[in-house]
């Protein structure tokens, strides 16, 4: 068996990309490998599973050649073609790839200077050996800073929500097929839709627990059953993920579900509230302390009902006022996925040389997908034309052309309306990467920070505020710049930004891209209190990613947003009024 996780496969593809780059391979090949690596890294299914099921097509951006290579990889454990491409390149190069700030060329330079790997690099940087050998001083400092930041980040190895959610969906789909299982739900941080997830746990209601357990351990894709009891089972999936199941009688399912959904803080507070009312809570039910009688509860409605409370949606069970409001029956009506009427950040392939990754689909394909999702409108929001390849005049031409293309698309009138948007770089001084003469062709611009993440808090705050002052900018894209498990947020005085945004009718984006989920839920709640409005967008680079909207909505819910707080729940007319410049 040749088991490779998605991260390992992506890593191999990145190595081939680097090898092609160093060997001056053709640009299309390099792009193809880059795209394949990115799709696999962000895939919500295990590539190995898809390969086994003959479903590699489900991963976007993988052509026939790479598919054949993956086939060879899973069958034999290696790929001859890849080995050949990598021949002659010092192995140290591949060790150094992936360290922030080190691309293939720098890696080669370092390897040639005798750096053997990451630890050696840290050693040589710390002792100034590299600079003495002639390595660029500013570059050495940049890499050193990046390494320091990386080591400061907690390595808790948690899964991205999107990945955990997709694994859970497959499991749920299987479990719902047997008559021996009456109800099943994911538990813990997954049910609360936290941005990163530790473990997968499931609650199951069954009249015939033994049969349910027997069915669970026969699930396809299990590499090992590590525990099998009368009411509990633990399995290890082929990707190495451990999953726990706990089975109870349907009569006490509500208490079990409540108990293991958490959060801990929510349950502790809830227990002390119950005690004051002469009740004691557990996974078995609600006990009357005086009479010792346990009230079983088959649903959470019954469970919270015994406490004379509303049921707080799982996403807000974090002990931040939800208990107080549930007691008063004043919980907010949180936004739902069905409230969303459009996606305002989808990258297309329209702009030939954008400043960052282009999308893979045409505007028409995007509009069709938007229709399938039931949307009324969709924002074609490409990265701006790159400054390296366009002067101001050329940018104006590109955006004039984009406007015409979108008008033509909208002319047919059959598909959802396409809004003409652009993701504009916020330059280090807060100016925009595109002149106003070009921005005027847009419905509005989404402005994002894509460089110089290390500025001081004050500098970064001023930078963002200056960008938001531009009348064409209506949305701040992925506001904190964090990449989950990869990059910390940059430092910003959020109060200043929230105040400015609320006062000047600028929205903050809740970006649903799997490793972003940015603005983070805690800041969403804070911003909302300042009266800030949001757009929930997927930042899709491929129409298949437009499904990620639910994760952005989850962040909005965790931030206590109602539909009225989210601009893309509004109908088209109101949206146009909002974005009128
Ligand atoms: Zn961006
Ligand atoms: Zn984007």
TrEMBL record:
In which domain of life is the source organism classified? Bacteria
- Domain DNA-directed DNA polymerase X: where? 4-318
Keyword list, A-Z: Nucleotidyltransferase, Transferase
Q: Which GO terms describe its molecular function?
A: DNA binding; DNA-directed DNA polymerase activity; phosphoric ester hydrolase activity; zinc ion binding
Q: Which Pfam families match?
A: DNA_pol_B_thumb (PF14791), HHH_5 (PF14520), HHH_8 (PF14716)
Q: Does the keyword Nucleotidyltransferase apply?
A: yes
The GO cellular component terms are: cytosol
Gene3D superfamilies listed in its UniProt record: 5' to 3' exonuclease, C-terminal subdomain, Beta Polymerase, domain 2, DNA polymerase beta, N-terminal domain-like, DNA polymerase, thumb domain, Metal-dependent hydrolases
Checking NCBIfam families in the record gives: PRK08609.1
Q: Which PANTHER family match?
A: PHOSPHATASE YCDX-RELATED (PTHR36928:SF1)
Q: What is this protein called?
A: PHP domain protein
Per the UniProt entry, what species is this protein from, by scientific name?
Answer: Candidatus Daviesbacteria bacterium GW2011_GWB1_41_5
Q: Which lineage?
A: Bacteria, Candidatus Daviesiibacteriota
